[in-house]
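User: Quick sanity check before I run a bigger batch. Here is a single chain. Can you write out its predicted 3D structure?
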Amino acid sequence: MRTCPITRLAAAVILPLLAACNSGSDPAIAGNAVLVSVTQGQIEGVRHDAISVFRGIPYAAPPVGALRWRPPQPAPDWDGVRDASGFGPSCVQPDVPPASLYFDPPQSTSEDCLSLNVWAPEDADGAPVIVWIHGGSLRIGGSAQPFYDGTAFAERGAVFVSINYRLGALGWLAHPGLTEESPDGASGNYGLLDQIAALEWVRDNAGAFGGDPDNVTIMGESAGALSVTYLLTSPLAEDLFDKAIAQSPNIRAVPALSEPAYGLPSAETIGAQLAEALGAPDVEALRAMDAQALTDAATGQRFVSQGTIDGWALPRQVVDALEADSQAKTPLLAGFNSGELRSQRLFLPPVPQSEAAYDAAIRCGYDDLADDFLDIYPASDMAQSTLDAFRDAIYGWAVERLVHEQSEDGLPAYLYIFDHCYGAARERDLCAFHASELPFVFGQTGNAGAFPPNWPVPDSEAAHALSSAMIDYWVAFASDGAPQSEAGPAWQPYSDGQSFMHFASEPLAGEDPIPGMFEMQEEVVRRRRAQNENWFINVGVNAEPGCALAAGEQD
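Assistant: Done. Predicted structure follows.
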């Protein structure tokens, strides 16, 4: 929304005088215009009922030209009052096929995208702060997506911040030339460095919106939750947050900067091969490319956006950091969805033609662990077992590993499984699919205008009630590290008998979410790490090369 010139004049002349009489946690308000002072200057947002909203605030300088593939630099100051009524552009990203469930094209994109948005209660004073990191495989998405409106959190007393960060090759490319020019001898984690810069901005400015800079919760889903794991293990993020929420994270091996590891080529090798495929002999040639053309070409070459173990921003693999007990010692809330793979079937192998073939493939791939695997993922329902086995190898084990580790360190840690289904999802065999918890967490159930066009919209009294309870739990956790809601049962920490919350038709408390799963998957990962092998999607009948083919001979 833009204010008329008279209102802008009033904001520029009168509101600074009013602001001088107000503390940073009490923004000056004229009509629906709200003015606050941040470190770079004054910004004018808008008030909706009792919520003040500020959009498109730059937290770092645009990473263009010589700044492309450099750590984020401080955003420049400005004179006068900066309009903060509209979202900034999303970061440059490839198109998503229109038929995709996740098709949700941004209104605009740019390399000048390092901005954030704030929703704050009108009378906030020392409020908990939640910083949202969007998902999208580290290659698509943005903070302006309607799903991510922070109103529901602000209505419950939290200051909610959503951020953009560099995506795709522009955010995650490592290259020998970039490493050589880096004073830290590192390259590849530019999107992560953006997230850290945003957290530094929040530390310096949360008080201007009534937030408590000493009570910051990082929160993300999918690639955003993967980012949470990076932040938990990055020394550069130390002391920038106090709690963490991870919705559907994974803990996969990622490339090391200059050496192959866990079956992966080095990140520099991947980057050099990409540059060669793009016809770019050096970093200067890469920087000369149009940002969108480079992004599209990298996507065409199947560049994978992921972290790099660079010895600086990410010193070691997340699972290695957990084992070394070097992760941030913060309370954690983490969970996954029961039907994650229903919308990610490209990960799945063909279901064997017979139970005997399935059994043979599992025994070939899992050896002495085969009986444990088959107890959890039986041959009697191979299609469901395949969905569940891949879900747990990618998401379930990661969630329980994170929660288990924080619990072992004596920290409050809470686990959930989102298992709610509704008619529109059931009709498309999408019950509790990947990211389906988002409208519930953000209070968007029934708000069809907030959904991507191909998304099955939940709209029922049960959905609205479940959403309200989940937001209660999330905000209470951000407030004091203990999720609770008057609309649901007490949520016990995982340390209390492997307790978890089951979000089905309503919140239900339980213990030991999937008996035997964590222990079996933990042993699989331990063995593969010991053999310097990857452990991500070599699962089930794909556990070992040749096992599925050998099993076919059983038919």
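Residues 1-330 form a domain with the Rossmann fold fold (CATH 3.40.50.1820).

User: Great, the batch can go ahead then.
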